[in-house]
Write a structure and sequence with these properties.
By secondary structure, the chain is of the alpha+beta class. The chain contains 14 helices and 47 strands. Strands 14-15-16-17-18-19-21-22 form an eight-stranded parallel barrel, surrounded by five helices. Strands 2, 3, 5, 8, 9 and 11 form a six-stranded antiparallel β-sheet that branches. Strands 1-4-10-6-7 form a five-stranded antiparallel β-sheet, covered by helices on one side. Helix 13 (451-467) runs parallel beside helix 14 (505-517). The longest helix has 18 residues, at 310-327.
């Protein structure tokens, strides 16, 4: 049985069985004697035969204020955890309001004379025609000494009367045993599966020199964090970029996709800012959550929308949905549709349009526009509070009953100062799990001024969440110093901007969990020529590589799922498997700024250079290009990048370095200079039997239009761009390689957009390795190209005044 389904069944069986003695007196209002139990604060309470259970309910009328309602003084144990439930039914509606809701508020008077009011249960949105609705939640009693505690059911407009029945308040026992040991045991059980590798080794291999490298390249469980759109594309934020690249598999763009950020005014619509970030994240192989289509809390509505009429609001909403969904269709894995509709009183669109089902219609419209993106609600005050969880579950069940395209449950998870309350987290997750929908923790942050404690708290909470079968993903609200005016220093994972960016103890702990503790990467040694190697690994995607004296001789990619996996690998005389080509990208350091300043990138021992490209750090076109060169000092082939006249930033050289069979060899050729003039071309042609695995181009005055890989003619063709200086030509360079069975193809991307820094990307088909990457544009203005596995990414370096003049990425793909 699927562990998640088994867990849901267990939760359902145990639900309600752990509660203690009833705290409310006359909780069903079956007695009309309200002495020492219920009283009505500036209202009238009487019995009614219209009931939820039993024979009677309490009828609440003649309310003078929104806080008027039935109240009961209660006896609470300091620091204890409580569950409150009740059922209410509206007797009338306020004219002009599409719906309302009822809440339970805890009022505490402390021994030091101070007072506190806190909502402990927030009901669903309702109308009088909806019948009985639950108002429930959970809370922990204060730790401070108090002399009075009472709960009041209230909140609607004073004109609204209602019925109250089946009220219950019970203490929940604390967790027994060691919750963390239990969590670690669950992780071993539900997050891992068995992997078997059946390996046969031929006699021509020395057995002691064989090792099997098991590398997890992606996790089944989603782990990620938020990024700021500007930071992920900024050249000055290289360290932050590296942290994101190395740590997260999923990302959420924190603000740039929000309606208010994209349209502070009705026009223009700022799609470019999130688009650049999305392109960069996709080039890094990240999956992206879209946050959010709308945010129905009044303070987060674009100011210009608030001035519109009812019908104009509907029109603006329709335009927003069509615009943002179609713009980013196919690029995002999730969308948060209407953020904080319950916890944040996010029903602005319902109230202003008079349509209480308008958010449901948003789900339907978005699903029709993009059926592949998964749609979520996203709420706070759930695992950190518990007051809205029951109402959230009620709304989710309504969506399910109506067949609406709700794919998962978004739970923010902004935890306040102090040790995490694991019982509170568990109780609220248990309620959500009963819906059967996957739970995503979408905005986890934890406050603690002591960074060492903060690290411990993050580990505790993430461990529990990772162990919970109903949770499918954790996205950190990854604060650091660029968090902006609302940054929470007490939740930071890192300190410093730019080159000063550095993970603190909490950030290091989080990275360790995401990239090491909850990933399986092992090297296994066979003990015989026919061996079965076994391990238990975290579920996800893997590369299994057999190495001989450190060089790859066989490789397979597999997915380890719930049922486990068995891999068969043979090398040597018994094998029919083909050799594999494996490649890595190696970047140089930065060049100096200025004309003809050079920098080189080289491959490591055992690697062969198959490609060479370069990139301006500031995404401008002021570079002369790149070439394959020979460094006499280190006696090694290098990829050399050359900076250009007028440059204001460094360039980097990018070498593509591959390993393959022993007969893989390459030679490097250069063409003659092209003629002067726009569009003039020159070709470096590989000898018969060799294929161009990578191309490069350079000019004397940043005047290259790039280079095309022409595998069919065994050539690399560079083109001149005379807009910069028609007095100079361009050179083409080729890496010409051969090996038994080597087959190569080239592929081109669509054009980039027209602004400086816009990117376009193309990837190899399955089974091929990327051996070279370049940019081409007959209109010139190339900032560079590079491989970010599996994509070849070309960068536009010039603003275009005419459409369809962006750069094209050209990738060379080879296999054996």
């Amino acid at each position: 049985m699927d562990p998640r389904l088994l867990f849901i069944w267990t939760v359902a069986v145990l639900a309600g069985s752990l509660c203690g003695q009833e705290v409310f007196k006359n909780n069903g209002i079956e007695s009309d004697n309200f002495a020492n139990n219920w009283r009505c604060r500036q209202c009238v309470l009487e019995q009614s035969p219209i009931k939820h259970t039993g024979k009677f309910s309490g009828k609440v009328t003649q309310r003078r204020h929104d806080y008027s309602g039935p109240t009961q003084s209660i006896s609470l144990t300091k620091g204890a955890f409580y569950e409150i439930t009740s059922y209410v039914k509206l007797l009338n509606d306020k004219p002009g309001e599409v719906h309302t809701r009822i809440s339970a508020t805890l009022h505490v008077r402390y021994s030091d004379g101070t007072q506190e009011w806190k909502k402990v249960a927030v009901g669903s949105y309702m109308r009088s025609t909806d019948g009985w609705k639950e108002v429930g939640g959970s809370f922990r009693a204060p730790e401070k000494d108090f002399k009075l505690a009472e709960i009041t059911f209230s909140d609607p407009d004073p004109s609204v009367s209602f019925l109250l029945d089946s009220a219950s308040l019970k203490q929940i026992p604390e967790l027994t045993g060691n919750w963390k040991i239990n969590a670690l045991q669950r992780i071993e059980q539900i997050r891992k599966a068995d992997l078997s590798i059946d390996l046969s080794v031929g006699d021509e291999y020395v057995l002691n020199d064989i090792e099997v490298e098991v590398t997890q390249i992606r996790s089944e469980f989603a782990m990620g964090g938020t990024v700021r759109a500007d930071a992920i594309v900024a050249a000055s934020e290289r360290k932050f970029h590296k942290f994101v690249e190395e740590t997260f598999e999923w990302t959420t763009i924190a603000n740039a996709l929000k309606w208010r950020m994209m349209q502070r005014n009705q026009y223009p619509i700022n799609s470019e800012r999130p688009k650049l970030a999305i392109e960069e994240l996709l080039s890094l192989g990240k999956k992206i959550r879209g946050h959010n289509v709308v945010w129905g809390v009044e303070q987060f509505i674009p100011t210009w929308v608030k001035t519109l009429s009812k019908e104009e609001i509907k029109g603006a909403l329709d335009t927003r949905i069509k615009g943002v969904i179609n713009t980013f269709k196919g690029n995002l894995s999730h969308w948060d549709v209407n953020n904080e509709i319950i916890a944040g009183h996010g029903d602005w669109f319902e109230q202003k349009t008079g349509d209480r089902y308008i958010t449901e219609k948003m789900f339907q419209q978005i699903h029709a526009l993009d059926p592949n993106v998964k749609l979520f609600h996203n709420e706070y005050r759930v695992i950190n509070d518990g007051s809205i969880t029951n109402a959230y579950v009620d709304m989710i069940k309504e969506y399910q009953a109506k067949g609406l395209p709700l794919s998962g449950i978004g739970v923010q998870g902004h935890l306040k100062v102090g040790p995490p309350d694991i019982l509170k987290i568990q109780q609220n997750l248990d309620k959500l799990a009963l819906t059967g929908l996957p739970i995503w923790i979408t905005e986890l942050d934890i406050e603690a001024s002591d960074v060492a404690k903060r690290a411990d708290y993050y580990e505790d909470v993430m461990t529990y969440l990772f162990s919970y079968p109903g949770v499918e993903g954790i996205i950190l609200w990854s604060w650091h110093d660029n968090g902006g005016k609302n940054a929470k220093a007490g939740a930071n994972l890192a300190d410093g901007l730019g080159d000063k960016f550095k993970l603190n103890a909490a950030g290091e702990r989080v990275k360790q969990l995401m990239t090491k503790t909850w990933k399986t990467n092992q090297v296994l040694q066979p003990i015989s020529r026919s061996s079965t190697l076994r391990l238990r690994g975290f579920k996800g995607d893997y590369t299994i590589t057999v190495k001989y004296n450190g060089s790859s001789v066989a490789q397979k990619k597999i997915t380890l799922g719930q049922s486990g996996a068995t891999v068969n690998l043979q090398i040597g005389t018994k094998t029919t498997a083909s050799a594999v080509l494996t490649c890595v990208t190696r970047w140089s350091k930065y060049s100096e700024i200025g004309d003809d300043k050079r920098v080189t990138a080289s491959c490591k021992d055992g690697e062969i250079m198959t490609g060479c490209s370069s990139k301006s750090v500031n995404d401008q076109e002021t570079k002369d290009g790149e070439k394959f060169s020979w460094d006499t000092g280190i006696k090694q082939r290098v990829c050399q990048a050359i900076n250009g006249f007028g440059s204001t930033a460094p360039v980097q050289a990018i070498a593509q370095c591959c390993k393959g069979p022993s007969d893989l060899q390459c030679t490097y050729l250069s063409s003659r200079v092209s003629k002067n003039g726009d569009g003039e071309q020159t070709a470096a042609v590989c000898p018969t039997g060799y294929l161009p695995t990578g191309c490069a181009s350079r000019s004397a005055f940043s005047s290259s239009a790039g280079v095309l890989s022409k595998v069919d003619s065994r050539s690399c063709v560079a083109e001149n761009d005379d807009l910069k200086n028609p007095k100079y030509g361009v050179y083409s360079h080729a890496a010409c390689c051969k090996a038994s069975g080597l087959h190569c193809v080239s592929k081109s991307s669509v054009r980039s957009d027209s602004f400086v820094g816009n990117k376009t990307a193309v990837a190899c088909d399955n089974g091929y390795a990327a051996t070279g990457c370049n940019a081409y544009n007959e209109f010139g203005g190339i900032a560079g190209a590079y491989i970010s596995n599996p994509y070849c990414i070309a960068v536009n370096g010039r603003k275009r005044d005419s459409p369809n003049q962006g750069v094209i990425a050209v990738i060379t793909c080879c296999r054996l």
